[in-house]
Write a structure and sequence with these properties.
124 residues, seven-stranded mixed β-sheet, 50% strand
Length: 124
């Protein structure tokens, strides 16, 4: 079992930046591929980014490529999502997830554990 807690969300103006953190406990995060997803009001939860257990492979949704960056610090048992050049359409609840699969995936059913989410609101 692994528990995930997201933090770092908030209100930011368009063009601004935020860094989300996902702290893991219960198991070492280095055992897992990690991902970030988001869900806007009235919409389905969508894939944002994923990173392999070693950090050597990353994968991004087209909508965030070039603006967001996923990273991990296995020594701190934490995964990060650096979000730059934020747009109002990035407004959503952001969720961290852990997968015991070796490959990075954009599919929610590849992930075994989920955090409770942190809200990001981007004003225009």
């Amino acid at each position: 079992q692994v528990q995930l807690v997201e933090s770092g969300g908030g209100l930011v103006q368009a063009g601004g930046s935020l860094r989300l953190s996902c702290a893991a406990s219960g198991r070492t995060v280095s055992d897992y591929t990690m991902g970030w997803f988001r869900q806007a009001p009235g919409k389905e939860r969508d894939f944002v980014a994923a990173i392999s257990w070693s950090g050597g492979r990353t994968y991004y949704a087209d909508s965030v490529k070039g603006r967001f960056s996923i990273s991990r610090d296995n020594a701190k048992n934490t995964v990060y999502l650096q979000m730059n050049s934020l747009k109002p359409e990035d407004t959503a609840a952001y969720y961290c997830a852990a997968s015991n699969r070796e490959y990075v995936s954009r599919y929610q059913n590849a992930y075994n554990y989920w955090g409770q989410g942190t809200q990001v609101t981007v004003s225009s």
